[in-house]
Amino acid sequence: MNSRDENITLRIKFITFFFLFLSLVLIIRLFQKQVLESRNYLVQAKSQQQFSKIELAQRGKIYFHDSADDLTKSYAMAYDIKNFSIFVVPKNVKDKHSVASKLAPFAGTSEMIIYDQINNDKTYLPALKKGLSYDDADKIEALELPGVYVLPEYKRYYPEGDFSGQILGFVDGEGNGKYGLEGFYDKELKGSSGKITGEKDTLGRVISLLSEEAPRDGTSYLLSVDRSVNFYMYQALKEAVESYQAESGLAVAVDIKTGKIIGMVSVPTFDPNKFQDYANAGQQELFKNPTIANTYEPGSIFKPIIVASGLDSGKITPDSASTFGATVTVQGYTIHTAEDKAFGHENIGDILKHSDNVGMVWVGSQIGSPTIYDYLSKFSLSEKTGIDLTGENIGIIQPLKDWGEIGRATISFGQGISVTPIQLAMAYAAIADKGIMMKPQIVDKIIQNDGKVADIEPVEVRRVISENTASDLTKMLIGVVEEGYGKKAGVPGFWVAGKTGTAQIPNQDKPGYQEGVFIHSFAGFAPANDPRFALLVKLDKPKNAKFAESSVAPVFGNIASYLLNYYYRIAPSR
């Protein structure tokens, strides 16, 4: 064999080996694809034939009562509005210029801006546009643009704006309830989304449904708050805050028999529809409900609580009396009457009528610190009330061992101790209800998504004082309104019981109290001969009134008159 033949033979062998090697590679590759990776391809093929669709649940509604005559009549204060959002998956968009041009009119922006957003191969982008109407959603879907999706979503809406914002709270951008009732019952209000799974053919047409899990809409709540009462209270309070140039104010009304809140307002407040604007402005404090979240030293409206503890324990009687000057010194501290006036000989009713700080120091000494401390606990002032709203705080009561004589003396007239307005309102409600403390509740009925309605039953906490004690104290508080500093809280034709309070405000950075600024409060109940409601009104740092008798007492009388004549519709009894 010559060299030429040898070269030809070598080439033939090389070519043969090459094709054998190539065949072996192909066989191995086919084995890998058809055997080893067959499951992956089956799953991929199945995923291309199957589809799934999430069906959003609708958040439950929040209602206020809307008629004192018909308790089934209600008004939706918070509900979902269904709208749509445009989503684009750039990787699936073939003609990006065309898509940008067609979406621009719906997105409310320029074609170039949209093109810059989608000119990539990303598999996800945030919503191009939110809040589309049904009509616009239908128009976009009719365009059948590959990579463009119109998805439904729900947006929370509060039709009354800033009215009652701090009761309701809000729903944030992630769909989570924050503050108020939205926060407290977030899980129940949310419900749960549904899901549909099915198969489609190669043309994308649905050929069968494999499974269907329906969405479960959230639970709805009918609050005990009456819309008309709350609006009247809000307007009255807002006018008072403006008239007296107060920093802020609040009012809360509770049905004493049930503990249900029928009105709860504060100024300033916020519009839940615009919660993000307040957050951006650093005004998150407005989200808190001051009736349950803020603590303060109550001043003279606390005196009836001290008197109740003395009467109920037998340490004093309505006839207990002594003679008092304009000042008294306790452990080196001099305590004054409000205007440095000596009231002379007084019994317990006179001390409350005159709001005599010096007389109350004597009352406290007759009762004793351990008994006072015990009754503060009975009145639930050392614990949260448990109201069904997010953000409830608790007042501060110093340990008994730290009181000393001066601690007992100042607590006897409402300083050196802090409470929340809701704690104090419920304490007055207990006095009005013959000594029975109820749990405050703001939900009246629970409405399940299947339409079933469950009533929320009143919850009795405990008896805090006897019926006789409550009766004796009520007579004294009637005297405060009839003959004392509470005259402007009176309502023609009705007996009203209550107490004024002009409290000093502690310094934040040093011992002592701020100069020249006060908190004005009035707490009471009516009709005093057969009480139906308790009411507390509070103004922070009013400028145009020196004492609570001139500022909050008239506001109390105004709101009480509305409740008596238009909500409860009670016939005058005097």
Please outline the helices and strands.
Elements: H1 3-36, H2 38-49, E1 50-55, E2 62-65, E3 74-88, H3 96-107, H4 111-118, E4 129-132, H5 134-143, E5 148-157, H6 165-168, E6 170-171, E7 177-178, H7 180-184, H8 186-190, E8 194-200, E9 206-213, E10 220-226, H9 227-243, E11 248-255, E12 261-267, H10 275-280, H11 290-293, H12 303-313, E13 321-324, E14 327-330, E15 333-336, E16 344-347, H13 348-354, H14 357-367, H15 369-378, H16 404-411, H17 421-432, E17 436-438, E18 443-447, E19 453-455, E20 460-463, H18 467-483, E21 497-506, E22 513-526, E23 533-540, H19 548-567
Parallel strand pairs: 2-10
Antiparallel strand pairs: 1-8, 2-3, 3-4, 3-5, 6-7, 8-9, 10-18, 11-12, 11-23, 13-16, 14-15, 17-20, 18-19, 21-22, 22-23
Main location: membrane
Domain Penicillin-binding protein dimerisation: 57-208
InterPro entries: Beta-lactam/transpept, Beta-lactam/transpept-like, PBP_dimer, PBP_dimer_sf, PCN-bd_Tpept
